[in-house]
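Researcher: I'm preparing a figure for a lab meeting and need a structural model of a single chain. I don't have an experimental structure, so a prediction will have to do for now. The sequence is pasted below. Please return the structure as tokens so I can convert it later.
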Amino acid sequence: MSSHSSGSKWVAGLLIVAILVVVGIFIYREKQARDAVSAPAFSNGPVASATSTTVHDAPLVQHPIGPAGGSTAGLPPLDQSDDDVLAGLMALTSDGALKSLLRPEAIVSRMVSTIDALPKQSVGMNVVPLRTPTGRFQVVSDDGNFIASKKNIDRYATYMYVADRMNTKAAAAWYRRNYPLFQQAYRDLGTNGYFNDRLIEVIDHLIAAPEPKGNQQLLPEKVGYVYANEALEQLSVGQKFMIRVGPENEAKLKVKLRELREEIVGQKAAGSDGD
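Model: Understood. Here is the structure written out token by token.
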């Protein structure tokens, strides 16, 4: 990855990839997928939450961003930031892998809306910032029961390719410099909370996703499949996404999330020592 060149300033994508790969990798949620239904257009203005919005009040900020996160100098307005963000993202990779995944409109707002929704029961498909994996979710029969086919793992290959090459240190540095855009997008959801606290909360939630052993029985519904195990089916959309990518990918993503969390929280300590 590049260092502090004009291109590397937009190592932006690495933060987006860090969390959004965790989102976009799995956005084909079998229960919600509908081939014939297209999502409503996503406006580049203030974003409504994908589900009923819970106000995340934060009387005391738990994970403050350092001084650099408080300045808007040199930052475009949120509703005009897509061109700069997209240009920087495209500079990150030479093979077009990231470009093939990213929805180029309202990038920061989509990311914030999706992150905020991960601990809930659903994520609106119109707010997710990455494109859905290609192909259909496949099941096979195992002693008369439906289970997920191992072929589904191939659908996530490009997402994992991008995630594996993420530099979490550079991602956290970019995030700190550009934090005002994320905070504004979070306020646009109707919350008075502090986005970085919510981000850390969501990272911890995803890391805590269970790691069930063996094949999990699936039950067919009118559209898609649900887990026969009620405890798994009642998990948040984010934790179910973590499970559905398979144990090997789940383990890799948890490593990346832990690294990102450490870098983001570490920025607070660095700032308190006199940035």
